[in-house]
Design a protein that fits this description.
This protein is an alpha+beta fold. 45% of the residues lie in helices and 10% in strands. The chain is built from twelve helices and four strands. Strands 1-2-4-3 form a four-stranded antiparallel sheet, sandwiched between helices. The chain is elongated, with a radius of gyration of 21 Å. The chain starts with 8 loop residues before the first helix and ends in a 27-residue tail after the last strand. The N terminus is likely disordered.
């Protein structure tokens, strides 16, 4: 059956594109390789493919335009997932307005579908656009490869089995302009820098959500001392403090603005004072 796309523009476009491609595949208008490339592009929310299907999917010329695009990629030997995930401004624009409502804390991931590196890079570029006082740029990012993830997982034997199912991890720290006498983040500048790094973490996750990638911000340092995490990634423990470990990957259940979020008991009215 068709995907439930109500209120979710990304899913809607993907649904339309898959339907148009399926019609071509049904009458053998695409080779097996061509079909695979197109489907991988659509599932990675490639904007060019989605828009092509949206505007030409019902026209006789759709097959020609699509095959030309695919053949260029196949002839150049470019990997389909890399092409599909070239996270351009257009890709983010499809769902940027809904990214806030798409984001959820995800703990169950599809471990067979890797997150394309351009999507991660785009999210990091979004992260460093976070507001920061006097442009101190206090955030530091540690993108963890398989070896480093294994070391992080091994820090907590009791939860190692669950942590091992997380596809990707990004460690975020703050190199604050100053710390309190006891080394804590307690001074005016230190608090400003930590707030900036927290904003960067949210920007990173929102950008991922705009591309259908789920995430979870782990502030509990994986159940181990924060310094242990910083040491694993090679951070300067004297100069940096842990902000969190961001788990991320394509979720086992696709993100959807229509899925329920934890109820905010206070709501907007419970925390808002409208002043004259």
């Amino acid at each position: 059956g068709r995907l439930s796309s109500e209120g979710d523009p990304i899913i809607n476009l993907m649904d339309e594109a898959l339907s148009a491609t399926a019609r071509l595949a049904h009458r053998a208008a695409l080779s097996r390789d061509e079909e695979e490339v197109v489907v991988r592009r659509i599932l990675a929310a490639d904007p060019a493919t989605l828009f092509l299907a949206r505007h030409f999917g019902s026209l006789p010329t759709f097959e020609r335009h699509l095959r030309n695009s695919v053949q260029q990629q196949l002839s150049s030997g470019q990997d389909a997932s890399h092409h599909a995930a070239a996270a351009s401004t257009a890709a983010a624009a499809i769902s940027a307005g809904d990214a806030l409502f798409l984001r959820r804390s995800v703990i169950a991931y599809n471990t067979t579908q890797p997150v394309p590196q351009p999507v991660v890079r785009r999210a990091l570029e979004a992260a460093i656009l976070a507001p920061n006082h006097f442009l101190t740029e206090p955030w530091r990012f540690y993108e963890c490869g398989p070896e480093t993830r294994s070391k992080l997982v091994a820090l907590n034997e009791k939860k190692a089995a669950a942590f091992a199912l997380v596809p990707r991890m990004l460690v975020i720290s703050v190199a604050a302009s100053e710390y309190g006498p006891d080394g804590s983040i307690s001074t005016k500048k230190g608090l400003e820098d930590y707030a900036a790094a927290a904003c960067a973490a949210q920007n990173f996750m929102l950008s991922l959500a705009a591309h259908g990638v789920g995430s979870k911000w782990m502030t509990g340092a994986l159940g181990v001392p924060p310094e242990a995490v910083l040491q694993v990634v090679g951070a300067d423990v004297q100069a940096e403090r842990l902000v969190g470990v961001i788990w991320f990957g394509f979720p086992a259940v696709p993100l959807s603005a229509s899925s329920s979020a934890p109820v905010r008991k206070r709501g907007v009215d419970g925390v808002l004072q409208q002043l004259p």
